[in-house]
Amino acid sequence: MHISSSFDSGNIEVIDAQDASAVRLRIRKDAGEDHFQWFYFRVTGARGQELSLRIENAGESSYPEGFHGYKACVSHDRQHWGRAATSFDGKVLTIHDTPQHDSVYYAYFAPYSLDRHADLIADIASRAQVQYQRLGASVDGRDLDLLRIGQPTSDRRVCWIIARQHPGETMAEFLVEGLLHRLVDADDPVSQALLQKAVFYVVPNMNPDGSIRGHLRNNAAGQNLNRAWAEPTLERSPEVFFLRQRMEQTGVDFFLDVHGDEALPYNFISGSDGIPRWSPRLGELQASYIDELIRATPDFQKEFGYPIDPPGQANLTMASNWVGERFDCLSMTFEQPFKDTANHPHRDGWTPSRARRLGQAQLDALRRLIDRLR
């Protein structure tokens, strides 16, 4: 038996793998040493063996409460991901599995590789009404990909959607993938109606360096991008620096920052209620979007989520708060679970296919209030 993680998004440290019934592992920390939780590794040569894969530093992770009621993702082909029996005692996360194949992968959530990202960009960029734009380079020099869908005109609303500021939250890019494929579908009446009234700027992966390194939250410089929006720098947060620069050129009428939450078993929206410029107009728009999304899909709800910031006390280093304050627009953070939706559970928990469908549903909600965004 052998365990490895030397591949795109891989993350695990092997302490001892001599005994299949008591494999000892650790998750490697992000650059910056302040976060870790994402894991992704391969086990070979263990077909038919009862594995007990013990991640010994899980209780010290960024969000240990996220491992209660959690089941690890497992796949032999990296295309179809199920869930393995998993237990957590507050310190050690143990994955229990008997592989039916000579090669099997285990991950915190279904990975979204940079190759898949490149394929998505190439596919969408080749469609009618789409223009590819390079925002700039990441800390490690990787391209920051932006897709513009539709034609900008003075009367069209400007909609910005970004994902994976936190690279380990891979469900975010799956959601955006579903949204993009529907948005460029020439036969979809909802998409075509939206493109008559809006132009979309979409960044499917804000943090390519952290993605390939197997980080949970930080970029290559150890910066949490979603705490860099007030004063981004070219040295530590060029990803945010270049995006803000482009937003100043286009303006913003609608902003959605897509994430994943480790602990809460729900899809939910965290709004920018606490920004100084919060107003009844923004409150009505946000409530309408949430209600329309509930009508569009049973996978979304509004009963559970984060506490609302007190008036004027929003953290303006966070993307949705900074954008909402700067542009006086509907600006939200969208959270998905690593576990499952407690209100609408599935045997495989939250999955890439469910995330993609939820991405498509965003367009149904947006269509109902596109005329009211200004």
Give structural notes.
This protein is of the alpha+beta class and 374 residues long. The chain folds into two domains: 2-107, Immunoglobulin-like, CATH 2.60.40; 114-372, Aminopeptidase. It has eight helices and 17 strands. The strands form three sheets. Strands 11-12-14-13-15-17-16 form a seven-stranded mixed β-sheet, with helices on both faces. A hairpin with a 5-residue loop joins strand 11 (130-137) and strand 12. The longest helix is centred in the last third of the chain and has 18 residues, at 352-369.
Write a brief structural summary.
The chain has 374 residues and is α+β, with helices and mostly antiparallel strands. It has 8 helices and 17 strands.
What tags apply to this protein structure?
five-stranded antiparallel β-sheet, 2 domains, Immunoglobulin-like, alpha+beta, seven-stranded mixed β-sheet, 17 strands, 8 helices, Aminopeptidase, 374 residues
Broad CATH class of the largest domain: Alpha Beta
Shape: globular
Distance between the termini: 60 Å
Number of domains: 2
Number of helical segments?
A: 8
What does the largest sheet look like? Answer: 7 strands, mixed
Strand order of the largest sheet: 11-12-14-13-15-17-16
CATH architecture title of the largest domain: 3-Layer(aba) Sandwich
Oligomer: single chain
Which stretches are poorly predicted, pLDDT < 50 over at least 5 residues?
A: none
CATH topology of the largest domain: Aminopeptidase
- Helix-residue proportion: 25-40%
| Main structural class | alpha+beta
Fraction in beta strands: 15-25%
User: H/E element string?
Assistant: EEEEEEEEEEHEEEHHEHHEEHHEH
Question: What is the β-strand count?
Answer: 17
Mean pLDDT: 98
CATH superfamily of the largest domain: Zn peptidases
Rg from C-alpha positions?
A: 20 Å
